[in-house]
Amino acid sequence: MARTSGPALLAGIRPLDRAALPRDLLAGITLAALAIPTALGYATIAGMPIITGLYTLVVPTAVFAILCSSRHLVVGADSATAALLAAGIAGMASAGTDDYVALAGMVAIITGILLLLARVARLGFIADFLSRTVLVGFLTGVGIQVAVGQVPDMFGLPKEGSGPVAQLVNVVADLSQASLATVGVALGVAVVIRGGRLLSRSFPWTLVAVVGAIVASAAWDFTDHGIATLGPLPSGLPSLTFPSVDTSDIAVLVGVAVSLFVVILAQSAATSRAYAAKYDESFDEDTDLVGLGLSNVAAGLTGAFAVNGSPTKTQMADSVGGRTQVTSLTMVAIVVVVLLFLTEPLQYLPTAVLATVVFLIGLDLVDVAGMRKIFRLRREEFWVALLTAVVVVFVGVLQGILLAIFLSIVIHLRRSYKPRNTLVARNPDGVIESFPLDTARTLRPGLVVYHFAHSLYYANANQFAEEVLELVEQVDPPIDWFCLEASSVADVDYSAAETLRQVVGQLAGHDAKLVLSGLSDDVRDELETFGTLELVGDDAVFATVHDVIEAHRQQTGGPRVATGT
């Protein structure tokens, strides 16, 4: 859930649970072992020097961990933004060159500025349009896309084809050329990680697999057996520099930054919201926008490339017990140590190990249980989740995110467009409760109480008018009071107010009077502004249904009736 006010500094850590601190520290160490090789892989996807992948896990990650409100979201290099970056600046400079790095850095800075402007405009509300249904589908699609994209490296085959599905098809076609030694390494890593979890889910099996693979590769020279490794990497921390690019390139770079902005804004919010929902925690989207914006500016100034709230890394941290941003800061410290002292042994890490780790993380993102639950409980929402997942896999993450937002809005509009309105009446025991409209019940002779279950606006105003007239014509004997029970009406727009005026006249044609109950102060002010209250009359506005019952009894006569609830 989203917070209503911005949190303080280090909200992703505070309150600090000292008892849980060792768990978060250990999770940070394991996360570093997982994130380091994947960040190197994402640098390759982005066309950047491989070491810059580690740069994304230093200053940018630390900036976000300090400034954010989410306790779970891990920021760093990400496959979706890396791919968008490479596609956007391809042809402007040769991949991996100084000019290319400068272009990527400027894109990151512009993206950061756009995110900060989004904070000023309070666009964090976009996360509110991501329902849990589409979140399940979105993360499932990302998981499939990430997992499938690792298969070529797990078989020692080149990645051929645009997109993970095409790459998988090419792997199947070239399966006879696969490296058995590479497949053996990938299978061994998978067995250690998955098999180890059967023994203990809290033990860092992935860390064991990564370290073990590095040791084995160095001892038996895996490259001589046809197993690809990362190769030599430079050491040292990133330096602070402002990227220099031609002003004529800025317009193109802004366009690339806009696409990254959309992905980062929506994917980060989607991931934060998914894990906040998982642990019943709150977060503030606008505060996280500041963290994301400054993280990207920091990336551009430290020779890195655009960073994102990564569902993959967040799942990594969650799967090994990380529950606060202490995990991210611990990872930052480990990456700093690696950059200063341990880049030499890292060169022996087989790329198949990297691919297998990412493959398994992708599988963890595939929420089969969640999809089954949605299918069982809300069939129509299952198809929405499935469509979101399919678009992410077959079309792209950006399109999947946009579709997720669109479908979430459609789901909301569909429910508000056709609200399930009811009648308030007495059951055989004399207790007041809700009944379907087709029962045409009165609360007392001559009085119908109609509960409208949503805000009144232009899209459902016609439904309101039609249901009122149908009830007036169906109820027998005829009514003299028609009560709109409006406790669920949070807003009335101009079109709905005009419809109310129309209904007043139509009811008068049936010798019936419109009365209102349960109006909030805001709705009452709106109706007063529109002149609707003046038309209805102050004597036709009541606080509760019981007040309506008593006023109707006094006007029409009859015995006082007990007001059971």
Protein topology:
Blueprint: H1 21-46, H2 52-55, H3 59-67, E1 75-76, H4 79-89, H5 98-120, H6 132-154, H7 164-173, H8 180-199, H9 205-220, H10 250-278, H11 285-301, E2 308-309, H12 311-319, H13 326-346, H14 351-365, H15 368-377, H16 379-394, H17 397-417, E3 422-426, E4 432-435, E5 447-451, H18 461-474, E6 481-485, H19 494-509, E7 513-517, H20 521-530, H21 532-536, E8 541-542, H22 545-556
Describe what is shown at a glance:
This protein has 565 residues and is mostly helical. It has helices spanning 21-46, 52-55, 59-67, 79-89, 98-120, 132-154, 164-173, 180-199, 205-220, 250-278, 285-301, 311-319, 326-346, 351-365, 368-377, 379-394, 397-417, 461-474, 494-509, 521-530, 532-536, 545-556, and strands spanning 75-76, 308-309, 422-426, 432-435, 447-451, 481-485, 513-517, 541-542. Residues 1-7 have low confidence and may be disordered.
